[in-house]
Amino acid sequence: MADNPDSITTDLNTEPAGSVSHTLPQIAAEQRTAYHEAGHAVIALTQGRDVHRVSILPNKTRLGQCDLKKGRTRAAKDWLETEVLILLAGAAAEGRLSGRYCWQGAARDLRQVRALTLSRAGSDHQAERLERRYLEKVELLLNAPENWLAVELLAADLIQRRTISGRAARYHVEQAVARIAKQRVAGR
User: Fold this and answer.
1) How many CB atoms lie within 10 A of CB 126?
2) Residue 142 has what pLDDT?
3) Which of 43, 94, 145, 147 has the fewest CB atoms inside 10 Å of its own CB, making it the most exposed?
4) Within the chain, which residues score under 50 in pLDDT?
């Protein structure tokens, strides 16, 4: 279990030996971490959770962190689903960037996901099915042009500044939504 349920993190062990495909371009660990944390932040914001801070400054146990604000949230239709989507969004964004999932690097997120899905499903088999369904849903959310653009903008800002505020994260989401809306209007 995580030390702080409002802190979504990336574990340090993100590059297991032999895990990088030779057909995929080499992507810097910092960029993967930035996309991972940006994925958490964008899905949190689109699901009504407020973000306090997003960082790719490493410490002893993690490469990055997305801190959610406590007590400030829109009423979620399904609280558990929202939390699981946010937790899976990091690995899903990183996977979309690199072309493969790095489950070892998302181990802490996955432990939290398993605890949540087991509380609803009751058995490991049912929890796995629920997790697959939530992963498919978060992939669909990230595939929305405005959400993926927000991830890209936020990740670029993280690479440049290393830590950004929740306000900056929200700004990137708003800018992405506005850009895509403008493109849709221009395309008519």
Assistant:
1) 13
2) 98
3) 145
4) 1-25
Looking at this protein, which amino acid is placed at residue 24? L
Q: Which domain, by its residues, includes 66? A: 7-14+24-186
Rg (CA), the chain: 16
Write down the pLDDT at residue 75. Answer: 62
When divided into structural domains, the chain yields a total of 1
- Give the position of tokens 């062990």: 13
Structural domain includes residue 19:
no
Strand partners of residue 163: 55
Q: Is residue 80 part of a domain?
A: yes
| 1 located within any domain | no
pLDDT of residue 44: 97
Structure tokens at 41: 């932040």
Which residues, at least 6 apart from 131, have a Cβ–Cβ distance to it below 8 Å?
Answer: 84, 88, 113, 114, 117
Counting every residue, how long is the chain? 188
Residue 41 burial (CB count, 10 A) = 33
d(CA 112, CA 58): 20
Q: What CATH number is attached to the domain comprising 84?
A: 1.20.58.760
* CA–CA distances in Å: residue 97 to residues 93, 120, 148, 162: 6, 31, 10, 19
Enter the tokens of residue 66. 């997305």
Residue 81 is assigned to a structural domain of this protein: yes
